[in-house]
Amino acid sequence: MAKTTTAAREDYLKSIYHLSTEQDGERVSTSALAERLRVRDPSVSAMLKRLSQSDLVDYEPRQGAKLTEKGLLLTMRVVRRHRLLEAFLVEMLNLDWSEVHAEAEVLEHHLSDRIVDAIDYALGHPNEDPHGHPIPDAEGRLRERDLQSLTALPVGDSATVREVHTDDSARLNRWKELGLVPGARCEMLEHREIEDVMRLRVSGREILTGSAGIFGVRIEKD
């Protein structure tokens, strides 16, 4: 089923936000958006022009796009719906955390603010979704955290896993098996950089992995 204009617009805004965040606030290129959304470059350019006309993005051809203040506020509302839905699907419907992202992607475009607020209330106003991502409040404010990649943890140091970044259900399941979930304690026991091998203690259990195996796991150091 084809997406509505509103759903497509929200998907673009959310993708710009996530890509910009991953690139430390840089403008997002047309090609990067096309790859993430799996559409053609001309379609991206056309949508960015429409979003620019609505003052939701600042877009310059060949320079990329970034969210305006108005666009960021709308995006935070979408992010809030998505993350509350993930929490609801796990806590209230007992779905596995590997399943809820895709379900929330569909449902997030169809909830009123009243329903979103009711979900928030029923869950006890959670601060984070099941993957550890902070949930924006009703005014679109997002709690800032100083996190880093688990791959950057120095040998001998300990940290707490705070969030995991991936849409890959198989990867999420693997992290769950290893105990790499939000709240888990981990320590870097050994890091052989040339071989790209890391030995970690995760919640009392030792694991061996390469950087690709834990890319996307973000931590807060002690």
Describe the 3D structure.
This protein has 222 residues and is of the alpha+beta class. The protein folds into three domains: 63 residues, Orthogonal Bundle (Arc Repressor Mutant, subunit A), CATH 1.10.10; 64 residues, Winged helix-like DNA-binding domain superfamily/Winged helix DNA-binding domain (Arc Repressor Mutant, subunit A), CATH 1.10.10.10; 74 residues, Roll (SH3 type barrels), CATH 2.30.30.90. Helices cover 42% and strands 18% of the residues. The longest helix has 23 residues. It is globular.
Q: What's the number of domains?
A: 3
The portion of residues assigned to helices is 40-55%
Q: Roughly how many Å apart are the termini?
A: 47 Å
Largest sheet: 6 strands, antiparallel
Shape: globular
- Based on the coordinates given, report the CATH architecture of the largest domain: Roll
Q: Describe the strand arrangement of the main beta sheet, using strand numbers.
A: 3-8-4-5-6-7
Can you give the mean pLDDT? 92
Sequence stretches where pLDDT stays below 50 over 5 or more residues: none
Number of distinct beta strands:
8
- Structural class, by secondary structure, is alpha+beta
From N to C, what is the helix and strand string?
HHHEEHHHEEHEEEHE
**Tally of individual helices:** 8
User: What share of the residues does DSSP label as strand, in percent?
Assistant: 15-25%
CATH topology of the largest domain: SH3 type barrels
What CATH first level of the largest domain would be assigned?
A: Mainly Beta
Name of the CATH homologous superfamily of the largest domain: Ferrous iron transport protein A (FeoA)
Radius of gyration: 19 Å
